[in-house]
């Protein structure tokens, strides 16, 4: 099948949504589909990257075509949606897949077979209108929703969608996961490239590999890690408090934009915390080694979590780091946010209150001194990760799509 994927923003970028789009494009290509990605660009083609640069930035190993379509900022993505439609018609694509609301609405309205993936409730009258246009359009084939919590809230806001959402008891098991029986709505958490997490080194060996770049890393020292952005609500202040209370443990914080890293580094120096390594941004291709270097991985999300575009996404979170952590096969300590119960349980993670420093310290201490518990959680984490491969996700999303508007 010829599948046109419209990216939600420019790339290369460090936003999680661009990583997710590129991972899905790769997965669909691996499945044998002919996939091309359209990307908005405020500049002519000089913004285009060499494939090798994109592959390292996004951790890709399967090549597909990327096309930059020139747009203007003042049109706020509407000109991009129109250009995508013209582009895919010229290519004679059979399916449009996107997280870009304007493109999803226009494609569906024009009768183009369209899959729309959503990660938040539309806020404001225009995003809500675009969502309704998609739902009512002749081309609406499938709606992919990232979590059950988001599906429930979307159903409350959009009555037409509510009829497509079976109650939880009517979920069925498909591919080892609970999914809804509706053929229009698919609830699919994010995923992971399992192949990139095969045969990872032990924590000590991984630390040794990184020590040539980061000589402060002690390969024999118990290590706790966090990878990802440092936006508000990710728990960076909590991480520093934990590190300050555990001077014998070393902490790796891998990721973050320059400004966020600089601000955090200033706090570390002011509070005289000597056991935290801040790496700054790490290309996705290199991330597994940093995660493997940790004995314990943390997800210290707070009660309010800011997205890259602003807003609170704590109720609907499905962070890619969750599935990377699982695939890495390390013990995980995670905040007690209800949405995380959709992926984690007491067999594959250690839950603690998100705002209780002492509880986090106690959980890490227990894992530090209980190797058997650490090994049990690690084993179950890796088993859980098998359900969340990007290719399996793509198979579920595309299943029966050829007949969606037949």
Describe this structure in words.
- The structure is a single chain.
- This protein has a seven-stranded parallel beta sheet with strand order 3-2-1-4-5-6-9, with helices on both faces.
- The chain is of the alpha/beta class and 406 residues long.
- Helix 4 runs parallel beside helix 5.
- The chain contains 15 helices and 15 strands.
Trace the largest sheet across and list its strands.
3-2-1-4-5-6-9
Q: How many helical elements?
A: 15
Whole-angstrom Rg? 21 Å
If you average the pLDDT, what whole number results? 89
List segments where confidence is low: pLDDT < 50 over at least 5 consecutive residues: 166-181
Approximate helicity band: 25-40%
Strand content: 15-25%
Q: Report the structural category.
A: alpha/beta
Q: Looking at the structure, what is the overall shape?
A: globular
Number of strands: 15
The largest sheet, given as strand count, sense and whether it forms a barrel, is: 7 strands, parallel
End-to-end distance, in Å? Answer: 16 Å
- N to C succession of SSEs: EHEHEHEHEHEHHEEEHEHEHEHEHEEHHH
Annotate the secondary structure layout.
Elements: E1 2-6, H1 16-30, E2 34-41, H2 51-58, E3 65-70, H3 78-91, E4 95-98, H4 101-109, E5 114-118, H5 125-136, E6 140-145, H6 148-157, H7 159-162, E7 172-174, E8 177-179, E9 185-187, H8 203-210, E10 223-227, H9 236-245, E11 250-254, H10 258-270, E12 276-280, H11 287-292, E13 296-299, H12 320-328, E14 331-335, E15 350-352, H13 357-369, H14 371-385, H15 390-398
Helix pairs in contact: 1-15, 3-4, 4-5, 9-13, 12-14
């Amino acid at each position: 099948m010829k599948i046109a994927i419209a990216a939600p923003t420019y790339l290369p970028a460090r936003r999680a949504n661009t990583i997710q789009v590129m991972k899905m494009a790769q997965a669909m290509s691996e499945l044998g589909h002919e996939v091309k990605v359209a990307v908005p660009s405020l500049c002519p083609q000089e913004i285009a990257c060499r494939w090798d640069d994109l592959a390292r930035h996004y951790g890709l190993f399967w090549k597909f075509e990327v096309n930059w379509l020139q747009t203007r900022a003042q049109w706020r993505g509407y000109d991009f949606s129109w250009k995508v439609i013209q582009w895919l018609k010229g290519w004679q694509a059979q399916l449009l897949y996107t997280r870009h609301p304007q493109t999803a609405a226009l494609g569906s309205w024009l009768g183009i077979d369209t899959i729309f993936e959503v990660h938040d409730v539309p806020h404001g009258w225009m995003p809500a209108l675009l969502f309704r246009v998609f739902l009512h359009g002749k081309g609406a084939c499938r709606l992919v929703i990232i979590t059950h919590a988001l599906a429930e809230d979307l159903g409350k806001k959009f009555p037409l969608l509510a009829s497509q959402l079976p109650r939880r008891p009517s979920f069925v098991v498909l591919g080892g996961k609970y999914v809804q029986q509706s053929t229009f709505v698919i609830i699919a958490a994010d995923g992971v490239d399992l192949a990139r997490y095969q045969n990872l080194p032990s924590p000590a060996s991984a630390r040794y590999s990184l020590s040539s770049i980061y000589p402060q890393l002690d390969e024999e020292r118990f290590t706790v890690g966090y990878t990802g952005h440092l936006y508000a609500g990710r728990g960076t202040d909590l991480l520093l408090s934990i590190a300050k209370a555990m001077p014998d443990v070393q902490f790796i914080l891998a990721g973050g934009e320059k400004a966020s890293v600089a601000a955090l580094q200033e706090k570390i120096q002011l509070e005289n915390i000597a056991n935290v390594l801040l790496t700054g941004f790490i290309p996705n291709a290199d991330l597994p080694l940093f995660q493997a270097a940790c004995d314990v991985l943390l997800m210290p999300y707070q009660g309010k979590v800011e997205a890259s575009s602003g807003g609170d996404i704590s109720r609907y979170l499905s962070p890619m780091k969750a599935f990377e952590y699982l695939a890495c096969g390390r013990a995980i300590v995670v905040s007690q946010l209800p949405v995380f119960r959709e992926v984690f349980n007491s067999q594959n993670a250690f839950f603690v209150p998100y705002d209780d420093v002492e509880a986090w310290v106690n959980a890490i201490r227990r894992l530090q001194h209980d190797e058997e518990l650490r090994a049990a959680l690690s084993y179950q984490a890796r088993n859980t990760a098998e359900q969340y491969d990007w290719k399996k996700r793509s198979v579920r999303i595309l299943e029966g799509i050829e007949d969606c508007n037949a």
